[in-house]
Design brief:
heterodimer; A: 580 residues; MetI-like fold; B: alpha+beta; Rossmann fold; OB fold (Dihydrolipoamide Acetyltransferase, E2P); six-stranded mixed beta sheet
Chain lengths: 580, 356
C-alpha cells in the first residue's frame, strides 16, 4: 500500500475507465484488500470451517456432540444470565453518570471523569484481584462489618452476583464514554421547546431527551454487552473456584484440556459464542432502526440543571464516595494486603513485610521475564500498529471509498471477536498458515506478537483517523502552496498537529498489549509468558499474595505512565500547539 | 499572463466546469463571482493545482501548468493562496508563517540569513504586523489572523495570488477595512489576483474585472460598472444588479411592457441579448414611483421596508411583483397604496462607459 500523490489520483478519477492507470489502481486496491483479508478475515473463516470438518470430510458430528451435553447448556445459561445482569448494571451506572456529568451543575467534573476511567485503564483481572482483597477476611469490609451489631458477613464475590458486579463496574466507563457526548449534543432548545409546549421536566426527559439519547445508549450498551461476553479474567478469577463456567472460560478449559477433539469442540463453542455476539448486534440494530442521529449538533457542556448549594454538595459527596469505593479503595487494599506476610493473617504492623515482593522479583524468575516479554511485545506491537495504523488511517481519510471502508471493517473483526475465540482463530491460522506447512510460529513469542498486532491495529487506525479528521485540509494545502511537499510537509506541518491524537492511539495499543490476558492465556508457551499469564498462574495456584504484589507494581506503573502521558499532552498543547 | 483554455472538470458524471476560457493579465485583479456550487471553487483549485482538469489547459506565460497529461503540483507553481478559514498553523509564530514559504516556495530566498530576515520584516510591515511577529495564531484577533494569511501568501512574491472567499470569516466592519488592505497589497506587489467571492458588493468594490459564473459556465466577463449597468444575461442581471425582468416588446430602441401597452420606455443601455428575448432588465433604483392616478404602469404596494438610506417597496403589477428602491427624500407610500410606475430619466449607458 503506497501513498500516491492525491492530485494525480483525483485527476485520473475523471479519466476513461479503460486507461492503464485506472486498471492499476484497482489492482493495488485488490492486492491491498487481499493481504488484509488474509490477516484479518481468513483466520475467522478457518475457525468456522474447522468446526464442520473431521479428518478432511464435512460433518456435523462435533455440533451434535457438544449440543447434546448438559454442560454446554448450563454454560450458555450462565453466560446469558451474567452478561444480561452485568450489561444492565453497566448501562444503569454509565447512563446515570453521563447524564449527571453532562447536565447537572457540579464542581470537579474533570477529576470525576478521571476516576470514572480508572477501572477502564486498569486491566479487569487486576480490578478483580483488588476486589477480592477488599472483601477478604483481612480486608476493610469485613473489619467494618464486624464492628456493626449482628453477625453480618462480607458478600461472597466468588458467585454469579460477584461476577456480575465486577463486570458491571469494569465496563460502565464504556457506556459513559458513549453516552456523555450524546447527552451534551442534544440541543438545550429542544428541552426548552418541550417546556414551552407545556411538558414538565420529567415528561420532557422521557419524551425528548431519552429518545434522542437512545442511539448513544444503545451503542454503549452493545459495547458493554460485547465486553461482558468477551471478558475472560473476571469469570476465570471468580467463577473457576466456584465452579461457575461461562463460554469464554469453557472454551479456555477445552483448549488447555487438550483432548483428542479439543480444538474442534472449542471451535463449535466459539461459533455459539459468536452467534450470541451477533444476536446482540442485531438487537441493537433493531432498536436503532428508526432513530435518526443529527451529527452536526455542537457539544454543549454548560450545565442545564442547577441544584441548591446543599443538594449539590450532597450529590457531589455521594458521587465521590461511590467513585472512591469502587475504583480507588480496592486498589489501595490490594497494595496494603500485598505487604502482609501470609494470606489470611490480620493486617497489623508485625505482619508487614516485603517478603512477597522479594519472592516475586528476586526468587521467582518468571515475573521478571514476563515483564520483559510483555514490555517488548507491547512496544513492538505499538510500533507496528503506529506505522501501519496511521498509514491505513491516512488512506481512509484521503480516499474514503468502499475499498478503504471494507479494509477497516476487516481490521475491526479481530478486536470485535471475543478474545478466546480470536486466540483460537490465531492458532488455526498460524499453526499451519498453508495446510501441511508448519513454520513453527505457534509455540513461540511470534504468535503472541502477530495476535496482538492484528487484534489492536484497529485502535490505532481509529485514533489516527480521528486525528486526521481534526485537522483542516487547508492546513496541508497551505503548506503545499508555500512550496512544502513530501517529507517537509509531514515534518513541519502535519506531524506536529497529528502527534497528540496518534500518540494517544499508540499508548492505548501499548497499554492493551501490556496487560492482555485472554488471548495470551491460550497462546503463551514456556519462555513467552506475559504479565497477565503469570498473575493468572499465581492466582490459579492459590498464591494470592504474590499476585497482589505483582499487580500492585503494575498498577503503580500504569498510573505513573498515565500521569506522564497527561502531563506530556498538556505540555504539547501549550508549548507546541499554543492552545490556551 | 495566465491563459485558461477550454477548461473542463468532471466529478464522475457531474460536470463542475464546462469548457471555461479565461485570460488573466499581469497585475490584473479579477473577482470570480457566483452562488455556491457555481464552480468558482473548482476553478480556484484547478488554478492552485490541488487537482487536474478533465479537459483543457492552464498556462502561465509560456509554461503549461496543467493539461490532461501533466499537472504541475501546487508546491512547484509560482503562486500564493489565502484560504477562507485562514489555515494558519497553530504551532508557528507570525514570523514563522512568513518565513515558511520563503524557505520552500519556488521563489525562496536563496541569499543569506540577513536577506531572509529583511524580507520577513518588510512583509510584516506591509501588513502591519511587525509588532506581533512572535505571537501565535491563538493570540491573534480575526483581522490579525487574516493579515498573517495575506503575509504568508505574498511573502515569496508569487506571480498569481489566489483568494478563496478570504473575507467571509470576518464581521462586516472588518470586511470593509480588509478590502482596502487587499487593494493596497495589490498596488504594492503588482501580482495578478484571482479573488473568489459570492458577495456581489465585494466583487464590484474591489476588482478590475469580474467573472460571473453560474452552473459551471461563465456568464459574463466585464469591469464592475459595465457588468452592473449593462448585464448581458438574465442571471447576471438578477444576481449582480437585482434587476426586475420586465417582459414586453422591443421596437427599435423603444420598449413596450406587455402589461400596459400605453407605456413606452427609452433604451437606457440594454444588451442585445435582452432585446432579442423581449425583456427589459430594470434595477430597483431605476424605477420612478408616482402617486395614484398618475401615468405609467399601475401597481399596488404590498410591502414597505425602511432601510435608513432608502426605502424598499414591493409593488404588485399585474401578475408580477417588482422590487423598487426609492430615496427617503422622495414622497412616501404605504402598504395598500395605488401607485404609478415609470422609469427614471437616467443617462443612457453605453458599453464604452468604462474603457477595458
Amino acid at each position: 500500500m503506497t501513498v500516491k500523490q492525491p492530485m494525480v489520483e483525483e485527476r485520473k478519477e475523471g479519466d476513461s475507465s479503460f486507461s492503464l492507470f485506472f486498471q492499476k489502481k484497482n489492482l493495488y486496491k485488490g492486492i491491498g484488500l487481499l493481504a488484509i483479508s488474509v490477516f484479518f478475515l481468513l483466520p475467522v473463516l478457518r475457525l468456522v470451517w474447522l468446526s464442520f470438518v473431521d479428518d478432511g470430510s464435512l460433518t456435523l458430528q462435533y455440533y451434535k456432540e457438544v449440543l447434546r451435553e448438559p454442560a454446554t447448556w448450563n454454560t450458555v445459561q450462565n453466560t446469558l444470565i451474567i452478561v444480561a445482569g452485568s450489561t444492565i448494571l453497566a448501562l444503569v451506572l454509565g447512563v446515570l453518570f453521563s447524564w449527571i456529568v453532562a447536565y447537572v451543575q457540579l464542581s470537579g467534573k474533570r477529576a470525576m471523569q478521571l476516576f470514572i476511567f480508572l477501572p477502564f485503564i486498569i486491566p479487569s483481572y487486576i480490578t478483580t484481584l483488588a476486589w477480592t482483597q477488599f472483601f477478604s477476611a483481612s480486608g476493610p469490609v469485613t473489619a467494618v462489618l464486624s464492628w456493626l451489631p449482628g453477625s453480618l458477613e462480607a458478600p461472597n464475590l466468588y458467585s454469579m452476583g460477584g461476577i456480575i458486579l465486577l463486570l458491571g463496574i469494569s465496563h460502565y466507563p464504556l457506556v459513559y464514554l458513549f453516552t456523555v457526548n450524546v447527552f451534551r449534543k442534544i440541543p438545550r432548545e429542544l428541552e426548552e421547546a418541550a417546556a414551552t409546549s407545556g411538558l414538565s421536566k420529567k415528561q420532557a426527559f422521557r419524551k425528548v431527551v431519552l429518545p434522542l439519547a437512545l442511539p448513544g445508549i444503545a451503542s454503549g450498551g452493545l459495547i458493554a454487552f460485547l465486553s461482558n461476553l468477551d471478558n475472560f479474567g473476571i469469570p476465570a478469577f471468580l467463577g473457576t473456584p466456584a465452579n461457575i463456567r461461562v463460554l469464554s472460560t469453557y472454551i479456555y478449559e477445552q483448549v488447555v484440556g487438550f483432548g483428542p477433539s479439543a480444538f474442534s469442540r472449542a471451535a463449535v463453542l466459539s461459533v455459539i459464542l459468536g452467534i450470541i455476539a451477533l444476536l446482540g448486534t442485531v438487537l441493537q440494530w433493531f432498536l436503532l432502526r428508526r432513530s435518526r442521529v443529527n451529527e452536526t449538533n455542537r457539544s454543549d457542556s454548560t450545565p442545564r440543571i442547577y441544584l441548591s448549594a446543599g443538594k449539590q454538595k450532597l450529590l457531589e459527596a455521594s458521587l465521590w464516595i461511590f467513585l472512591l469505593v469502587t475504583s480507588l479503595m480496592p486498589l489501595i487494599t490490594m497494595g496494603a494486603l500485598s505487604l502482609i506476610s501470609a494470606y489470611g493473617v490480620p493486617f497489623n504492623l508485625e505482619n508487614l513485610s516485603l517478603r512477597n515482593y522479594e519472592y516475586v522479583f528476586l526468587t521467582d524468575s518468571k515475573p521478571i521475564s514476563a515483564l520483559t516479554n510483555s514490555l517488548q511485545l507491547a512496544f513492538f506491537t505499538m510500533l507496528v500498529c503506529l506505522v501501519l495504523g496511521t498509514a491505513m488511517a491516512y488512506l481512509r481519510f484521503k480516499y474514503p471509498d468502499w475499498s478503504t471502508k471494507v479494509a477497516e471493517l476487516f481490521m475491526t473483526i479481530p478486536f470485535a471477536l471475543p478474545g478466546t475465540v480470536f486466540a483460537l482463530c490465531m492458532i488455526f491460522m498460524w499453526l499451519e498458515p498453508v495446510p501441511g506447512w508448519n513454520p513453527g510460529i505457534y509455540g513461540t513469542v511470534w504468535i503472541l506478537f502477530i495476535a496482538y498486532a492484528t487484534r489492536f491495529l484497529v485502535l490505532q487506525v481509529r485514533g489516527s483517523y480521528t486525528a486526521f479528521l481534526q485537522i483542516d485540509p487547508s492546513m496541508e494545502e497551505a503548506a503545499r502552496i508555500s512550496g512544502a511537499a513530501g517529507w517537509v510537509k509531514w515534518r513541519r506541518i502535519l506531524l506536529p498537529l497529528l502527534f497528540p491524537g496518534i500518540l494517544s492511539g499508540a499508548l492505548l495499543v501499548f497499554l492493551m498489549a501490556l496487560t492482555e490476558l485472554t488471548v495470551s492465556s491460550l497462546l503463551w508457551s514456556s519462555g513467552s509468558e506475559t504479565i497477565g499469564v503469570v498473575i493468572f498462574g499465581y492466582e490459579q495456584a492459590g498464591y494470592s499474595t504474590y499476585s497482589t504484589a505483582f499487580s500492585t507494581v503494575l498498577v503503580l506503573g500504569i498510573l505513573l505512565g498515565g500521569g506522564l502521558f497527561m502531563l506530556l499532552g498538556n505540555i504539547w498543547d501549550r508549548k507546541v500547539l499554543k492552545n490556551k | 499572463m495566465i491563459k485558461v483554455t477550454n477548461l473542463t472538470k468532471k466529478y464522475g458524471s457531474f460536470t463542475a466546469l464546462h469548457s471555461i476560457d479565461l485570460e488573466i493579465g499581469d497585475g490584473e485583479f479579477i473577482a470570480v463571482l457566483g452562488p455556491s456550487g457555481c464552480g468558482k471553487t473548482t476553478l480556484l483549485k484547478l488554478l492552485a493545482g490541488f487537482m487536474g482538469p478533465t479537459e483543457g489547459t492552464i498556462a502561465m506565460d509560456d509554461l503549461v501548468l496543467a493539461s490532461t497529461k501533466r499537472v504541475l503540483p501546487p508546491e512547484k507553481r509560482n503562486i500564493g493562496m489565502v484560504f477562507q478559514s485562514f489555515a494558519l498553523w497553530p504551532h508557528m509564530t507570525v514570523a514563522e508563517h512568513v518565513k515558511f514559504p520563503l524557505s520552500y516556495h519556488p521563489n525562496k530566498i536563496k541569499e543569506g540569513k540577513n536577506e531572509l530576515q529583511e524580507r520577513i520584516n518588510r512583509v510584516l510591515k506591509l501588513v502591519g504586523l511587525n509588532e506581533l511577529a512572535n505571537r501565535y495564531p491563538s493570540e491573534l484577533s480575526g483581522g490579525q489572523k487574516q493579515r498573517v494569511a495575506l503575509a504568508r501568501a505574498i511573502a515569496p512574491l508569487p506571480n498569481l495570488l489566489l483568494m478563496d472567499e478570504p473575507l467571509s470569516a470576518l464581521d462586516v466592519e472588518l470586511r470593509m477595512e480588509m478590502r482596502k488592505e487587499i487593494q493596497k497589497l495589490h498596488r504594492e506587489t503588482k501580482a495578478s489576483i484571482v479573488f473568489v467571492t459570492h458577495d456581489q458588493g465585494e466583487a464590484l468594490a474591489i476588482a478590475d474585472k469580474i467573472v460571473v459564473m453560474n452552473q459551471g459556465r461563465i456568464e459574463q466577463i466585464a469591469p464592475p460598472e459595465v457588468l452592473y449597468t449593462r448585464p448581458e444575461t438574465e442571471f447576471v442581471a438578477t444576481f449582480v444588479g437585482k434587476c426586475n425582468l420586465v417582459k414586453g416588446q422591443w421596437q427599435n430602441d423603444r420598449f413596450v411592457p406587455a402589461i400596459d401597452l400605453k407605456n413606452v420606455w427609452p433604451d437606457l443601455g440594454v444588451a442585445d441579448s435582452f432585446k432579442e428575448s423581449g425583456i427589459y432588465p430594470v434595477r430597483p433604483e431605476q424605477f420612478l414611483l408616482m402617486p395614484e392616478k398618475s401615468d405609467g404602469l399601475q401597481g399596488i404596494v404590498s410591502f414597505v421596508q425602511y432601510q435608513g438610506h432608502e426605502i424598499h417597496y414591493t409593488v404588485e403589477v399585474g401578475e408580477e411583483s417588482w422590487t423598487i428602491h426609492d430615496s427617503v427624500f422622495a414622497s412616501r407610500f404605504n402598504t395598500g397604496d395605488f401607485v404609478g410606475i415609470s422609469l427614471k430619466n437616467a443617462p443612457v449607458q453605453k458599453a464604452s462607459l468604462v474603457s477595458n
